Amino acid sequence: MTLIKEIDYGTRQATSEDTVTLTVDGFDVSVPEGTSVMRASMEAGISIPKLCATDMVDAFGSCRLCLVEIDGKRGTPSSCTTLVEEGMQVHTQTKRLKGLRRGVMELYISDHPLDCLTCAANGDCELQDMAGAVGLRDVRYGYDGVNHVQQREASGELNAKWKPKDETNPYFTYDPSKCIVCSRCVRACEEVQGTFALTIEGRGFDSRVTASVNESFLDSECVSCGACVQACPTGTLQEKSVIEIGQPERSVVTTCAYCGVGCSFKAEMRGSELVRMVPYKDGKANRGHSCVKGRFAYGYAAHQDRILEPMVRESIDDPWREVSWDEALSFAANRLQGLQKTYGKESIGVITSSRCTNEETYLVQKLTRAVFENNNTDTCARVCHSPTGYGLGQTFGTSAGTQDFDSVEHCDVVLVIGANPTDGHPVFGSRLKKRLREGAKLIVLDPRRIDLVKSPHVKAEHHLALRPGTNVAVVTAMAHVIVSEGLFDETFIRERCEWDEFQDYVDFISDPAQSPEAIEELTGVSAADVRSAARLYACGGNAAIYYGLGVTEHSQGSTAVIGLANLAMLTGNIGKKGVGINPLRGQNNVQGSCDMGSFPHELPGYRHVKNADVRDIFERMWGVPISDEPGLRIPNMLDAAVEGTFKGLYVQGEDILQSDPDTKHVAAGLAAMDCVIVHDLFLNETANYAHVFLPGSTFLEKDGTFTNAERRINRVRKVMPPRNGYADWEVTQLLANAMGGGWTYTHPSQVMAEIAATTPSFANVTYELLDEKGSVQWPCTDATPEGSPIMHVDGFVRGKGRFIRTDYVATDEKTGPRFPLLLTTGRILSQYNVGAQTRRTENVVWHEEDVLEIHPHDAELRGVKDGDWIKLVSRSGETSLRASVTDRVSTGVVYTTFHHPTTQANVVTTDYSDWATNCPEYKVTAVQVSLSNGPTDWQEQYQEQSTRSRRIEAAE
């Protein structure tokens, strides 16, 4: 393996279908109309020197290094800003151009320290490369170094260039002395990331890049996405890991293991050590961009907390004992088989993870069905997005989003509901912001003022700050406006949807009880705003819906998804670019874990276990009978454990004690079991109640695939050997075989072959196809052998789209005198899910603890000031954390994240859930807030128990 060097064409690719033919240095080249001369030259294999140009951002034309001569044109125009014309004759290597370029480069070098041998960018510096490219061999102008510093300090006019290095950011440094003011970092921050955190300060030789005008990078608005570091052509912005380890020597393309965007990265290595993660330009989900997590927060893979040896203990009160793999697997297998012999086949089960690969998740559900001989399999994907599967399945016929991420570039109106893309899905959030800056209109439905409502150069047309729990009422009211004002697309509905179902829906939706005026007091949103937003969605052009857990994690989550599908069908916003229904999946493989049959009632491909023809496919493949009785979901497993009928659990890559609702109920269920097997990287919170710990492997240590939120199947490639000795799929196979499974897989590609043979939407998926195409989006069938970027183009998967009534039913969780506030929860940019990975990186600099956001009015009533310890109490439990007084939340609403186990926010959430799928209602909890002196008694007891449960016997 070698270091993958991606070609930088200098300017972005033109999209025109019309071509232009020109001649560059005597060679003919045909390119799309709108292409720059620089890119056309590169297409012809002729490289023009450049510094300020990169195909990451728009052409700028400031460095004057890419000058060319063009027959019939005066002067020497910059090739990056000059567009091609038919018959154009371009010359790139005349004597005049060579002299001009050497002169320009000489000026750059005269203002740059010549410390190349000790510079961390040595070998990866475009300034160094361009000096060689133009033949610069001597510099007539001296670099005044220390004397210049002393003179300017004495006069009180210290040049910005001579300011000290800014090393405040934990991941990269800024050395202003090496800045050549090419503005690539500034433009990347603006055009790619959309944060506008960087600017140019000063003039002439005194000009340098600065972060938010004289702020340090850490204190500025910089979100550490790494776009500026990637764009920098010198050592000005440099990863600290490169400074410490040295330049990488090989790279492997793989897929990020954080959120559902599914970014492609080059893992750049030196030996077996990871030097840096660089976003891959050919990654179809991220197009060469990244966020702070994927770009920099990979250090958890080598963290000292990671457990690398298997461990067992007889009782959860005992310390852990390190054992061999054989002993751990025998211990686990004997216990599980003993429990089944005593309590029956249904007494044990599994929980799969949305952080593991498709292949690993497939094997875990196979373990319970083919080895345990029951259907007791569930997944965290049901805990977050199962209403998506149900709602879209009922209306459209398939349980997934309709578009690819590129589709956002064609939107005219965007409806974001219950999602915070800039924090939860930041790379997609950046693409969305770019489209909004280009003129698309935005509607936000959220109880909280997310950054998209108003941030630099982006402002929502409408922010409907609805009361938590009233999504269905507001979405239905929008549909009422569209129908009652005749704004629906009758042609689309007649051709593509069930007309009788639509007529029934019209009878329901036309009722004045569904009007914005009727629900105004209930939702807290003015009728005028709802009407205006509905008209914009219906009449504003291509309209797309993007939603998240703020839609699904409600008692009416499935109804809300159905309501959004109704909106799209009403307006014909399905089946083309720039429209659709797009769930933003929270974790990297939520879509994949659903696809792989992780639910207790469905086999892979969303097919019910009661269907004999479906069971027959797997019975012939696996050679064992499959139960036709749906198994237990996680809450049912816990209930049955407390009752004494469910006794054993294998949990791969999931921390249900921290992530699932009603922590005390989860703890009681786990404590009642006789064998809990945790298969993970760290001793997580669930491991407090475990009897067997099987060390897991990171995404860097395995082969496989992830399926992102746009149904894109991406390859995960091993870049280093597993530190624990086995990839996760191998561990599952070892456990299966210890119980008599007889599995013989030798590589995950064989598991994918089995998936393709049994699951219609994956029928043509192979590792060879993924390596050839980079990625594909299912369904990947004979009809669509290269995948399906957009769904429901010519018709819905179920045939005709189905309108369904969406009656609003209030949650059973009610506010009152004891609990007058509503708590809703979410995520923050720097942390991920339960924080097990990101808390073990430098990301804690930005978020070291969970805090409770509370409106100034509610805070004043309770005597709460910013930073105070407060007690958060619900009907389920209580916890303490610090207050953040802010008007981002409305009066009557409080908000917190759930990234830190010391807070355990889910100790206060209830066990109410979605009526169709049991998805927990995390987003609506009645609470009270009061001043506190610190952690609650429960938190102290929990911490004591957690510390005790993590004891490991010293090796003899």
From TrEMBL:
Residues 96-135 form the 4Fe-4S His(Cys)3-ligated-type domain. This is Putative formate dehydrogenase. Signal peptide: none annotated. Residues 18-96 form the 2Fe-2S ferredoxin-type domain. Pfam families: Fer2_4 (PF13510), Fer4_7 (PF12838), Molybdop_Fe4S4 (PF04879), Molybdopterin (PF00384), Molydop_binding (PF01568), NADH-G_4Fe-4S_3 (PF10588). Residues 249-305 form the 4Fe-4S Mo/W bis-MGD-type domain. The keyword 4Fe-4S applies. PANTHER family: FORMATE DEHYDROGENASE H, RESPIRATORY NITRATE REDUCTASE. Residues 170-201, 214-242 form the 4Fe-4S ferredoxin-type domain. Residues 937-956 are annotated as: Disordered. GO terms for molecular function: 2 iron, 2 sulfur cluster binding; 4 iron, 4 sulfur cluster binding; formate dehydrogenase (NAD+) activity; metal ion binding; molybdopterin cofactor binding; NADH dehydrogenase activity. It comes from Pseudovibrio axinellae.
